[in-house]
Amino acid sequence: MLDQYNPLLVGLSYVISVLGSYASLQLVTAIPEAVTGVDRRRAILFAGLVMGGAAIWSMHFVGMLALETDMPMAYDILGTLGSVLIAVAACTLGLAIVGTGQFNFDKLLPASVFMGIGVAGMHYGGMAAMLMPAEIKYDLNIIIISVLIAVVAACAALWMAFQMRGRWQKFGSALIMGVAVCGMHYTGMEAAGYKMTGEMPEAGFAGALAGEYLGMASVVIAVGVLILNVWVARWYQQRPVVPT
């Protein structure tokens, strides 16, 4: 089958992952120094939503839209929603570990593992939600490499975000986190092989969504979540510092 990528959409997927990562890291690294425990937990939830929803989930489906094939493709709605929940939950937990209290290397490794799990879980969960007249067979070795890329790059991004507090250093951290998200996604795509079956599987009880509509929806969601994150970040910056 035809199997190639649209370079413009590949570039867009990376930009989305970088912007989402920057917004999330900027928020979560500022929280421990500025707000109370309740506000900190709320901020971590927002950061996890932005990282899992905008940086990872939206990037994934724009990346899938970038894949040009000659077969019909749709996505099971329930499976797709499950994949975004995996990303948000894993990223929220990882950011909660590294963003609470004083940063140290004992927190860095487990946080990086959870962030890597969020990226990989989103990708392979999203792939499982694909509806197409083909079966997917994976190369286990490449799967392992893709997960390692996500974990190692997430570790580097988190270290930069918490050790180098300048705006440009934070943006550099987001660039690396974008490599984690996109590197895992496109390496994971290389792990997939397709065997044509000629039969389109049925969607679950929640129905299915055509790939092009989901790609457009993911861009809209990414923009909406980023706007929400900017508003929340400004709200926190205007609050007085309260000792904990």
UniProtKB/TrEMBL annotation:
InterPro entries named among the record's database cross-references: MHYT_dom
Transmembrane residue ranges: 12-31, 43-67, 73-96, 108-130, 142-162, 174-193, 213-232
Alphabetic keyword roster: Membrane, Transmembrane, Transmembrane helix
Name listed for the protein in its UniProt record: MHYT domain-containing protein
Entry keyword Disulfide bond: no
Organism: Microbulbifer aggregans
Domain of life of the organism encoding this protein: Bacteria
One of the Pfam families matching this protein, by short name: MHYT
All residue ranges annotated as the MHYT domain in the record: 5-195
GO cellular component, one term: membrane
